[in-house]
Amino acid sequence: MSSKISLTRYLVEQQRQEGHIPSQLRLLLEVVARSCKSISHAVNKGALGGVLGTAETENIQGEIQKKLDIISNEVLIEANEWGGHLAAMASEEMEGIYLVPNRYPQGEYLLLFDPLDGSSNIDVNVSIGTIFSVLKKPEGQPGVTEEDFLQAGVKQVAAGYCIYGPQTTLVLTVGDGVAMFTLDREQGSFVLTQENLQIPPDTKEFAINMSNMRHWAPPIKRYVDECLAGKEGPRGKDFNMRWIASMVADVHRILTRGGIFMYPWDKREPDKPGKLRLLYEANPMGWIVEQAGGAITNGKDRVLDIQPSKLHERVSVILGSKNEVERVTRYHAEAG
Ligand SMILES: O=P(O)(O)OC[C@H]1O[C@](O)(COP(=O)(O)O)[C@@H](O)[C@@H]1O
Ligand SMILES: [Mg+2]
Ligand SMILES: [Mg+2]
């Protein structure tokens, strides 16, 4: 790239030329990006910053929190409660919604996030990330309630993630394709490094936690069995497998070179639709994937059309290269 375009300049251009980003949303996204930069610094310090290890507390999902889960949550809350033009926030790490202090006029937006995705990888120095989704606060009433957050993924006005890996990279959509920004540590700013990302429709790479194979539903087993059969099987080609156990890292790979990612329903906890959370994991990642020409379903329906019924709702996720996602979804339909 000949001239460096910062995230700020990119957003200003989008606002001016395309009319996609109202100024309040632009400022909000800049605050989120600044928070991700702080989290990235904390991740980089690792043991030197005292951020590794477990905090000995549980979140609402019954998961033991890591120190970095809590630190990242605090960074996002503190930065956005004063600077983000928000009415309220919701997070994987908080049971209820977080109302920003009263101000006039009240912020128009709702921010949802998974402050630290891939927690099991924190202490082993493997890529982790932050996922975020922005909704508009429904009009017509002064306060904010949890119901205001229960909007289908198609209503998102911005979505993104930041991956803390060998590079810190922020990926963003406001509904006009997907753009990628790399953190320039010397300058301290995110610089545009790719625009209009496209996921190839076909792939030879799948991502699923294979240790759960015995618990899967038949359509998932059928799909993976066919991949494993390789050239000699019905697909007539060999497949490769990757499972990083950080959704951000698996999705980032798929955005870069294609692939399919699955965290489906399984028999371990039959009453749960899946492991991943609809509002702050599946919906933002799903919108990014769709904006890059990919697809996301829960095996049956498009995830972005699901009407949520609770804040921490879980969902089965099949996302990535379009033809592969359609195949897995068809296998579910054929199995009834
Ligand atoms: O350890 P498992 O069961 O393979 O689960 C891995 C999945 O869990 C997650 O880590 C869940 O996210 P959190 O770390 O935010 O709870 C995903 O990022 C990842 O895809
Ligand atoms: Mg997560
Ligand atoms: Mg998390």
Supply database-style keywords.
eight-stranded mixed β-sheet, 7 helices, 336 residues, 2 domains, Fructose-1,6-Bisphosphatase, Chain A, domain 1, alpha+beta, five-stranded mixed β-sheet, globular, fructose 1,6-bisphosphate 1-phosphatase activity, binds magnesium ion, D-Maltodextrin-Binding Protein, domain 2, binds 1,6-di-O-phosphono-beta-D-fructofuranose
Task: Describe the fold and architecture.
The chain is α+β, with helices and mostly antiparallel strands. The chain folds into two domains: 188 residues, 2-Layer Sandwich (Fructose-1,6-Bisphosphatase, Chain A, domain 1); 130 residues, 3-Layer(aba) Sandwich (D-Maltodextrin-Binding Protein, domain 2). The strands form four sheets. An eight-stranded mixed β-sheet has the order 4-3-5-6-7-8-9-10, with helices on both faces. The protein is globular. The termini are far apart. The model has no long low-confidence stretch (mean pLDDT 94). 1,6-di-O-phosphono-beta-D-fructofuranose binds next to strand 5. One magnesium ion (MG) binds next to strand 5.
Helix-strand blueprint:
Elements: H1 7-18, H2 23-45, E1 54-58, E2 64-66, H3 67-83, E3 86-91, E4 98-99, E5 109-117, E6 128-136, E7 158-164, E8 168-173, E9 178-184, E10 189-194, E11 205-207, H4 218-229, E12 240-241, H5 247-257, E13 260-263, E14 276-277, H6 278-291, E15 295-297, E16 314-315, E17 317-320, H7 322-334
Parallel strand pairs: 3-5, 11-12, 11-13
Antiparallel strand pairs: 1-2, 3-4, 5-6, 6-7, 7-8, 8-9, 9-10, 13-17, 14-16, 15-17
Helix pairs in contact: 2-3, 4-7
This protein binds 1,6-di-O-phosphono-beta-D-fructofuranose and magnesium ion (2 copies).
Residues 114, 117, 247, 281 line the site of one magnesium ion (MG).
